[in-house]
Amino acid sequence: MIEESKTLERRGLAKGLKVWLDILFFLTLLGGGLVLIIWPVVSFSGPEEFKLTVPVIVGEGAFRYFNAGKKDPIREVSVEAMEDAPISTEEDRTPAPSNPWEDVSIAPGFTLAKAQGQLLFKPPTIGAGLLYWFFTLILVGALAYGLFLLRRILSTTVEGNPFDSANPRRLVHLGWIVLASSLFATASKFLFGHWALSNLSDSDFLLSPALMFYKEWLTCGLLILVLAAIWKEAVRISEEQSLTV
Amino acid sequence: MTIHVRLDQLLLEKGITLTELGARIGIALPNLSILKTNKARAIRFSTLESICRELDCQPGDLLVHQRGDPEE
After folding, report:
1. SS3 sequence, A106-132?
2. Is the minimum CB–CB distance between A5 and chain B shorter than 8 Å?
């Protein structure tokens, strides 16, 4: 009787988790639908100009080659400034500060070395906007598939069969999706940032694209792969146990 | 599998059905069927002891080692 109630309690926990996962999954599908259909329509035909956001570092970045410091000196970037910016000449050229915070004093013993922010800009072509939209869709799709796999795993647990032979394979897929999404997000944001800065003609600061490693996602993906290996062994033991008379 | 379970033959010799044996030793029919069809991966000593007691036989009468095909 006690064993049965503990089993019911465990399944109740799995059922509760599944409800949350179901909610997240359908919200992701809804969000994906909005990204797929409504966002491009609103962005490209609405009254507001379509703008992209990329992470940037104010100051020298990790890779000197990608620094925008080779460019001409600049003022603060805005859509209006880009349209009205004068064409720079050789006489205007002065070296941009490598570290704009050098003279900023915070407190004795403290120096502001770097600042990170978001660069908001209007893409010069619709193609660039569409490419950004497509990359976003890939990440939303990966999230939806990951949630789908989690739901399938929890379904087998609710049915009382957590060591279903398909679950290790699902966990492996989930782990690789998380790892791949992390690397894809890092690479795409860096490349978009580099491309955006290469289109800059005027800025007061040395800007460089931010190389953001999503360490949490990487760790999570690796953890899931380790769990998949353990689960596979558990499935083998469970099958052997079920065939022990 | 190279360990062959002669449960069929022993039940025939003793004139007992599988269902009856399962009821006597407290093992479910599906589990005994797994044993009878040589699909079992392992057998507990307690199960072996129960079967041998009911069928009045030795473990060597129930379990027979058959050499596999060398090419396998």
Report:
1. EECCEECCCEEEEEEECCCCHHHHHHH
2. no
Model pLDDT, residue A9: 66
Q: With CB atoms and an 8 Å threshold, state whether B34 touches A243.
A: yes
The pTM of this model reads 0.71
Angle at A117 between CA A177 and CA A175, to 5 degrees: 10
Pairwise CA distance, residues A15 & A22, whole Å = 10
How far does A38 lie from chain B, in Å, by closest CA?
56
The predicted complex's ipTM stands at 0.80
The token duo for B10 is 């022993």
Is any Cβ of chain B less than 8 angstroms from the Cβ of A237?
Answer: no
Determine the residue type at B18: L
Q: Do A245 and B32 touch (CB under 8 A)?
A: yes
Per-10-residue mean pLDDT, chain A, length 245: 62 82 87 78 63 76 52 40 48 52 70 77 76 86 92 89 94 97 92 80 74 90 97 94 90
Average predicted confidence (pLDDT) for chain B: 89
Q: Which residues are CB-contacts of B66 (< 8 A; sequence separation ≥ 6)?
A: B2, B3, B4
- Sequence length of chain B is 72
- Burial of A35 per CB tally in 10 Å (0-12, 13-18, 19+): middle
Distance of alpha carbon B15 from alpha carbon A223, whole angstroms = 57
Partner-chain contact A244 B32, CB within 8 Å = no
Retrieve residue A34's tokens.
């909005």
> How far is residue A76's CA from residue A66's CA, in Å, rounded to a whole number?
19
Angle value at C-alpha A117, between A115 and A118, nearest 5 degrees: 165
First vs last C-alpha separation in chain B: 11
